[in-house]
Each structure stands twice: as C-alpha cells, then as structure tokens.
Amino acid sequence: MESGARAGLVGKVVGSRYEVRALLARGGMATVYEAVDLRLDRLVALKVMHPHLAADPGFVARFEREAKSAARLSHPHVVAVYDQGEADGLVYLAMELIPGRTLRDVIRDYGPLTTEQALVFLEPVVEALAAAHAAGLVHRDIKPENVLISHDGRVKVADFGLARAVATSETNATAGVLIGTVAYLAPEQVERGEADERTDFYAAGICLFEMVTGQVPHGGDSPLSVAYQHVNSDVPAPSSVRSGIPPEADAIVRTATRRDPGQRYRNSQDLLADVRRARASLPTPTPFMDAPAMNDTLVVGLNNPAAAGGGLGYAPGAGSDVVTENDDGYGDYGDYG
C-alpha cells in the first residue's frame, strides 16, 4: 500500500512547487523522484521521507535543522541542497539532480579497482569532507551509495546531515539505519552512538579498502556480527586480501580505520595530503575501457590534479584518469533514497 502511494506521486505537484516526473530510487528511509521546480524551471531530485519518519515531530524538526545546515554547504564535490519543506503530510528535500551512477555501481561493474583508480574517486570525497568539517558538519554515513558520479565526470557526496536526523529519530529502531550502513560503521558509532570527523575518515578508509579489494573488511551472518568485528578487530591491510596493492593504500587504510579515533588522521587535510601524495607517487590510472570505445565515455579526474586544482571534467581521449561506460541512469542518492 505504501509503495503504491509513493509511486502515486508521479504526475503530482508537491508543496505547490515540485512537479514529480519519475521515480528514481527507493531506500530504507526515503523515495527519490525526478521533479521539475515550477518556480525556477529546473530539474531537481526530490527526496520524500517515508511516512513513519514524517509522522515523528522530533525527526521533522531535526530534519529541517540539518537540511538548513547542509544547504549552507556549497562545494563542487557536494550534492547541493536547494529546498526543504513539509506539505500534505510529506516531508521532502529538493536537491541537485546528478544523472550518472554511484560508486557502488562502479565497484560492481569494474571492481576491484587499481589503487590509482580508487584514489581518483577518494580524493574528491575527502575534499567534500574537508569542506563539510570546516563548516561543522559530519556526514556519519560515507559509503559507495552516497558517492555520485555524473555523466560529465563530477564526483559528489550526497546526504550530508540526513544520517544525524535519522539516527536521532524516535523511530530509528526500524533496523534499516544499521542494516544499510553497518559495513562502514566506526567502532564509536557501534559502542556509543557517537560520531565526529574521525568517524567519516573510518568510513572513507573502508571505502578505499572495498574499492581495491572488491569486498568490505568485515563480513558476517548478521549486522550485529559485523558491528562486533568493527569494535573488536582491526581492519586488515588491503594487500593481505589481494596481491599487488601498493603500501600507499595499506598506509591510508591503516591510519583511517584505527579502532581508537585518537589514532586516526587528526583532520581532513592530513588525510587529503596522504591521498595526494599517494596519487603523485603511483602510475597514471588505467582507463576501464579500451581507447576505441572512449568517444562516449565518462571520464573522471585529470592526470595532474594539482595543476587542475583537483578538478574533474569531461575529457575523452589520452589524458584521462578513470573512464567508465556512459549510462542513462541516475545515482541512487544513498540508502536514504
């Protein structure tokens, strides 16, 4: 019944402003639609929170506060938040629409990645974290589903602020909060429900581990067993799982995923510096596809990130860093949608 109600938003106008065009994704906490902002005449991603959250007044208040904080965060590698509202029993967020795919799609289709390829994706993620942390925002839910890669080569992090709003909701006992993200939870999140900048570093380290090995470091039959391992077992070196991974990747993963937050990177800039040093010391990343097929491809990154200001752009041909097959889809906008 609920699924039908959510699909029923297609063709309707939400908040007297957003005309819903198509269903993009469903997650444990929200449904995401493609919509037209009738006031500004632009396409947006409209994230509509599920009814059990919309019915929680405490969640709605926190959602509004977190959305306002996220909307103040303007950065090339962060999905922009345009608007937040509540109308006709719906609680929604209007965001930048990113046609493309997620890092999860890339890992599934092309993984394991080489370290050189993985660092091209990790660098803009850490740049986004650095900007957010400087603004006092902690993501709390960094994972491949929340890293969007557009058709024109931009890497963007989605869902800043939503994890905090959901985690503090009275309805957070609905297991989706932990089940969807347990592979990337830091020990302090499991033990004490706490999170700060270093929590994001832990999750980023897990993402790097997964990109280069093709698997997460801790597995189990249940979310509880995985959470237990985060608390009681060190994340192994990626090179112990897959041969050929250079020590630079091992070092970043090791420092980012220390169980004691005090032994992790002190700040985003330290992590970013290590990522950039590793990129500079490693060979140019190998494209995912052969050159003859590259005239319709998504190209992520530039060979000289320092000269380009770390920029990302569409640049087919020689000089590309990482190439993925073009796609007509959209990113999933994370487990929240």
Assembly classification: single chain
Number of strands: 11
Helix content percent band: 25-40%
What structural class do you assign from the helix and strand content?
A: alpha+beta
- For this structure, the CATH topology of the domain at 11-95 is Phosphorylase Kinase, domain 1
What distance lies between the first and last C-alpha atoms, to the nearest angstrom?
A: 18 Å
Task: Note down, in words, how this protein is organized.
It is built from twelve helices and eleven strands. The chain is α+β, with helices and mostly antiparallel strands and 337 residues long. The chain has a domain of 85 residues: 2-Layer Sandwich (Phosphorylase Kinase, domain 1).
Descriptive tags:
337 residues; alpha+beta; Phosphorylase Kinase, domain 1; 6-stranded antiparallel beta sheet; 3-stranded antiparallel beta sheet; 12 helices; 11 strands; 18% strand; disordered N terminus
Summarize this entry quickly.
The chain is an alpha+beta fold and about 325 residues long.
List strands and helices in order, with pairings:
Layout: H1 2-7, E1 13-14, E2 18-26, E3 30-37, E4 42-49, H2 51-54, H3 57-71, E5 81-87, E6 90-95, E7 100-102, H4 103-110, H5 115-134, E8 147-150, E9 155-157, H6 162-167, H7 176-179, H8 187-192, H9 197-213, H10 223-232, H11 247-256, H12 268-281, E10 297-302, E11 320-325
Antiparallel strand pairs: 1-2, 2-3, 3-4, 4-6, 5-6, 7-8, 8-9, 10-11
